[in-house]
Amino acid sequence: MKKIALLFLIFQFFVLQSFAQQYKYHIVKAGETTSDIARQYNISEETIFKYNPDARRGLKPNAKLVVPIGAEREQQPSNGEKKEQQHTEFEMHRVKKQETLFSLSQQYNVSIEDIKKYNKHLYSQELKKGEKIRIPKASSLKETPLAPPSGNILDLSLKEHVVLPQETLYGISRKYNITIADLQRLNPTMQTLQPGMVIKVKNGNVEKVVEVEGPLFKYYQVQPQETLFSLTRRFGISRDSLVSLNPALADGLKSGMVLKIPNNDDAAPVEEYEEADVVNLERRISNYEPKNLVVMLPFNKNKIVTTDSTSNVNERIRKDRVMQISLDFYSGVLMAIDSARTLGISTNVTFLDTEGNSGKVNRLLNSHNFSNVDAVIGPLVQSTVETAARGLESRNIPVISPLTKKEAGSLDNFLQTVPTDEMLADAMISYISENANGKNLVIIADAGAVEKRRKLTAAFPAARMVTPREGGNISQAEMAAALDKSRPNWVILESTKIGVLSNATSYLNSIAGPYNITLLTTDRNSSFDSDNISNTHLGKLNFHYPSVERSYDPSQNRNFIKKYSDKYGVVPNRYAVRGFDVTYDVLLRLASAPDLYSSINEEGTTQYVENKFDYDLRPAGGYINKAIYILAYDRNLNLNAVR
Fold first, then answer.
1. Pairwise CA distance, residues 614 & 548, whole Å
2. What CATH number is given to the structural domain containing 14?
3. pTM
4. What range defines the domain where residue 264 resides?
5. Band of residue 212 on the pLDDT scale cut at 50, 70, 90
6. Alpha carbon separation from 167 to 192, 216, 304 (Å, rounded)
């Protein structure tokens, strides 16, 4: 996977707190020049060089440029807009409570499209009370919008809508705030929706309840005299969650509105997952109270000087591996909070910079209010996460360790999300034991893997043993004596030495024709990533190993990858995915039980993009994740979870 575009997060986390300017990434196309890009974004070439100093030396295809959008772009309209804006006069309007684009269009006698045209954020965002927008004066527009037809019962303007792929009648009715029945009356020849179809729509109040679609939500028409408070009591959902699901409520509740409400019908079908024993907590949400999270990460903002240029900040982060991991993880946390919001789970999150030391963690614990915190995620390092857990243990606040794999001391509130190396090895031995019937087991272990060899021989006393010679060579005579042509050979390879691994995989690959060989290990250490180890050989040998995470399947996680890529300009790396999986699991567990401990004690295994979670009580106190994948290569080098 590509490295995450860190500059975006730098601006978001460090800079955008002070400046309103927004930025995006531009991927350079073959043959594109800075002049071409400047024209595309209506900015100067000097602006491009300001944020991308290296661009002065030329552009390379697929390079990423940071370009400012928003304020500067509005100040420099494109050629197509200059002449029009020179002749267009505007009024500034401060949005009042319950005002809508439709009411403003009627008030100023202009179309909704004209208002959006000069306030481009309204194409994707709702009107917000108190914001100032530009309203073009009708007299200065080239064409005066048509008045609503006098015979129209709802006194609304007709317009056309092009049906998008996967759009539904319900989605269109919500978009234009009309009923499905109105849509059908306006389009009497419409049978079924097809992408590209042009239909008539209009804006106004709904008349009826909209039909229900989808298993996770139901839809409700607001009745006269109803209030937000009565709706929250009726549907058992908090006000924040209701507004999160229905952004239009920020302008006030109106009779006739159609609201999106979580569907808690127990009879609704549960979505199936890959594994039969995996629990889908999205279907078990019952607690819609806002969740309060604290995320503690070593952002090391103290190393960033406010007067640093963008290139200097970028260079500092490139040299700080911990800061890179923190920003990657942080991006995944934000994605999880956003995904939970679409399910009606509102989250109040506080990000705290630990600066990577326990002393700063203690100061943060003493200076911040943790009284209503449901869970703390982080810090990342063993010493700091244990400090946080120790400081919050008396308040029974769960502290989730997202990356450490060493067991902590006696801490009842410590949740370790990464299984230990010993647990990984035990899971692999268990898998081999379950499937050993009819197999010829062979163990290759060098002098550095004495403990692993002891554990394997204790588990499989009938296994044949081959010891690599000095220099890593494998005796062909010993291997020939150990292998069996009449049945499958499962060869367990244990070593951290590149020479041993390279020689063993190369030789086993060369004799894989006459022998049926499957290669396994209890410890896929970093030496397996050496260029001297052929992935083609590993694929041919159907290499099996235990893992905390699986490689995500783009076809099954398309929505997550697309949303992340759209937001950050790159595909998520393992730390971004881990940030998402850990945070999303915590939020769903909090939303499906009275508290995190209850969910851990009552629910089974959960699974997300790359990671799964199933916690056990630790003898010393606290909890540890015991969910482990067994992964295997196939001949096409696809990595599949076999358990």
1. 12
2. 3.10.350.10
3. 0.61
4. 209-269
5. very low
6. 11, 17, 46
